[in-house]
Inverse folding.
């Protein structure tokens, strides 16, 4: 028995939104690597120790870049799952929300890597909460809608 999955033409928005998150993660990895090199923090050390960050602006910036990247990675399972589920009924909404979330991660990282962690949210990073909320609501609605029609 064979079965197939048919994607609507608008599924390209979903693909673009999710691929944009991969580009952001790659860019963040480059930012972290640049700050690691400048700070002299060697692998496998994940973060600069508190004393290192207190003594060196470069070590503090490395920690900020590393934390921005880690925070994005921590959110990825939620973003991927909610984007895919929302896209089952609302692919354009899911694609735009995922892409907007990715853009917000750039702003979050740029704010965080100023060395003042408070700026992670004041430079537009908090904007990412809106598309995340849209995806959570959209995926919840889609799941209930799928259950209702079963």
């Amino acid at each position: 028995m064979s079965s197939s999955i048919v994607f609507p033409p608008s599924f390209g928005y979903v693909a673009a939104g999710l691929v944009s998150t991969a580009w952001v993660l790659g860019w963040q990895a480059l930012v972290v690597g640049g700050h690691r090199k400048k700070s002299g923090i060697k692998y496998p050390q994940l973060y600069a120790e508190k004393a290192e960050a207190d003594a060196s602006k470069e070590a503090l910036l490395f920690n900020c870049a590393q934390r921005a990247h880690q925070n994005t990675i921590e959110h990825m399972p939620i973003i991927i799952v909610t984007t895919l589920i929302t896209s089952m009924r609302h692919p354009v909404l899911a694609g735009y929300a995922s892409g907007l979330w990715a853009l917000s991660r750039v702003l979050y990282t740029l704010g965080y890597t100023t060395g003042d962690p408070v700026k992670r949210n004041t430079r537009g990073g908090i904007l990412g909460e809106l598309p995340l909320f849209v995806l959570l609501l959209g995926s919840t609605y889609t799941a209930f809608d799928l259950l209702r029609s079963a």
Observations:
- The chain has six helices and no strands.
- Residues 93 and 103 are 15 Å apart (CA to CA).
- The mean pLDDT is 94.
- The chain has one domain: 11-148.
